[in-house]
Design a protein that fits this description.
With 570 residues, the chain is of the alpha/beta class. The chain has 22 helices and 16 strands. Helices cover 48% and strands 14% of the residues.
């Protein structure tokens, strides 16, 4: 048995097919100064051909699985056209006097090295995208076919050392039962595509994958746990066949809840919304029955690029989501960068404690010219629907007061320019620092809503780095201190007639649903795929009983006692 990172749920039972990577090898050749123009012309031709191929793949995805997945190829097109990438290739041709395919490889290696050195998992995964683009570009320069052919007509579990988005897109969907990859993680584009296509997938298995699994081996994979069984016994196969049937039945039942409101047994209607990274995720929210967007992480618009997005680019992205959601609310969080999320082009300083450093609203307030561009785009998008703006990492009352001053100034600018926006746009703060919990009464007088970000709130409350594997057992949102802070925030919001939502991982933890309901949480914002499960849970609960459960948990001293009580109460 091997274990990897579960990136796309589901059980698959089939034979393995090991796919060799289709990397095109380049042999560095020297050129003369007179040949520079010829090599640059080859680059121009290859760029045009690659753009055509990516556009075609984009269209294929658009027709087969929708806008969300097609946007991955859009991101590849953006990288392909990136002036910094193209300039770097041309610099190598001109200054190093080498052939164009070698220049592409050298430029790609530099960008890959840069991305792989970053702390943020999402940004590290973009290195695979650059490799994919460079491989396609070199194939076109050399006139080679980068497509791999799969000879078998039988169903199989695809096994590979690495898998690019291009390879994932072109796989024969009717034959691929599941995917196992030695490299990669949950945020790789191959993982995103696998989830979207409904293919069970496990990544990050490591180098032992190539040693342990061979083409023709019988495999069972469990995409929910990351377990891979090689040549299993018949009793284990039977067990997982039963699990496949159970999963199928459960999916069918959950799908029936799509158009139901998340109403408790005693008639308390809870707002159930979703967290998204960008416009590509909006369609899935609707498909899963979401009532709106509780967190649009705007920083993802700033990633996968080498310069800041313009006001127009941001406006288009925000508007796209707002229009797609119709009259449903869309909460957009302003730029939340720093900590484990870096933008190379912003030249953020090296810090001893980046999670406690210059990040999120602190950057926005110290760079008002950057902040106002985003606020203008957000306000303009509000003319198309129900936009709410949320500000991250508020720790001081003065910060939200300064934010409101800049927002009012931006509104005046747009009014003077005769540009439409919602003058009554609602604003809120992310509650993710203990100081914000302790001054929640004062903050509530300044805003229209709160949204609790439990990922950071737990980290800061318990002084536990959530990225540190040695102390992950101490990172626990059931800790009584965390529960009491959540209660403090919700109570403060209700005293001042505003509402509180939650957009951290705790909102999607089914063990926590009853406690949060009992604490008075008004809105749950979760990953789109979790919407049906959280809705199903809320439909089974009584608010009155949940209040009793929550009250009891607040009196307990340890998270172990909290979990034991929750288990016993069911």
């Amino acid at each position: 048995m091997l274990k990897g990172i579960p990136v796309s749920p589901g059980v698959a039972i089939s034979k393995a097919l090991f796919l060799q990577n289709s990397t095109v090898n380049t042999e560095k050749k020297s050129i003369t100064k007179e040949q520079i123009a010829l090599e640059q012309k080859k680059l121009e031709t290859a760029l045009e051909k690659t753009e055509e191929q990516l556009t075609e793949l984009h269209q294929q995805l658009l027709e087969s699985v929708g806008e969300e997945q097609a946007s991955i190829m859009s991101a590849h097109l953006v990288l392909l056209k990136d002036p910094a990438f193209i300039d770097e290739i041309n610099n190598h041709i001109e200054n190093d006097l080498i052939d164009v395919s070698s220049a592409v490889q050298m430029a790609a290696d530099q960008f890959v090295q840069l991305f792989e050195s970053l702390d943020d998992e999402y940004m590290r995964e973009r290195a695979t995208d650059i490799k994919d683009i460079a491989n396609r570009l070199i194939s076109n320069i050399l006139g080679k076919n980068d497509k791999q052919t799969i000879d078998t007509k039988e169903a199989f579990i695809l096994v590979s050392d690495d898998l690019t988005p291009s390879e994932t897109v072109t796989l024969p969907r009717e034959q691929v039962e599941a995917i196992i990859v030695a490299k990669g993680g949950k945020t790789s584009h191959a993982a995103i595509l696998a989830r979207s296509l409904g293919i069970p997938a496990i990544m990050g298995v490591g180098d032992q994958l190539a040693n342990e699994v061979k083409t023709g081996d019988n495999l069972i994979i469990d995409g929910s746990t990351g377990k891979i069984y090689i040549n299993p016994e018949s009793s284990l196969i039977h067990k997982y066949q039963e699990k496949q049937q159970e999963e199928k039945a459960e999916k069918e039942e959950l799908a029936k809840l799509k158009d139901k409101k998340a109403t408790t047994r005693d008639g308390n209607e809870i707002e159930l919304v979703a967290n998204i990274k960008g416009p590509q995720d909006a369609e899935e929210v609707l498909q899963q029955g979401g009532e709106g967007i509780g967190l649009f992480r705007s920083e993802f618009l700033f990633m996968d690029r080498t310069s800041l997005p313009s006001e127009e680019e941001q406006y288009e992205a925000y508007s796209q989501v707002v229009k797609k959601l119709g009259n449903r609310p869309v909460i957009i969080r302003t730029l939340d960068i720093g900590g484990d999320k870096h933008l190379p082009y912003l030249d953020l300083p090296e810090e001893m404690n980046p999670f406690l450093g210059w990040r999120a609203i602190r950057i926005s307030l110290s760079r008002p010219e950057l902040f106002q561009v985003q606020l203008r785009a957000l306000l303009r998008a509000s003319a198309h629907g129900k936009v709410r703006i949320m500000f991250p990492m508020i720790s001081h009352l003065e910060q939200i007061q300064e934010v409101k001053r800049i927002l009012e100034e931006t509104k005046k600018q747009l009014t003077a320019e005769n540009i439409a926006f919602d003058p009554e746009i609602e604003i809120g703060v992310m509650i993710e620092i203990p100081s914000a919990c302790l001054i929640a009464d004062e903050l509530a007088k300044e805003v229209d809503f709160f949204s609790i970000g439990t990922n950071d709130l737990v980290q800061y409350t318990l002084a536990v780095d959530r990225m540190n594997e040695k102390i992950t057992d101490l990172y626990d949102h059931f800790h009584p201190a965390v529960l009491r802070l959540i209660k403090m925030v919700i109570d403060a919001s209700h005293r001042h007639n505003i509402w509180t939502g939650m957009c951290g991982e705790m909102a999607g933890d089914l063990q926590a649903t009853e406690i949060l309901l009992g604490l008075g949480l008004d809105e749950f914002s979760v990953s789109p795929t979790l919407l049906p499960r959280v809705k199903h849970q809320l439909l089974q609960l009584s608010t009155e009983k949940a209040k009793q459960v929550a009250e009891k948990t607040l009196s307990l001293g340890t998270s172990k006692e909290v979990l034991e009580y929750i288990t016993a109460s069911h």
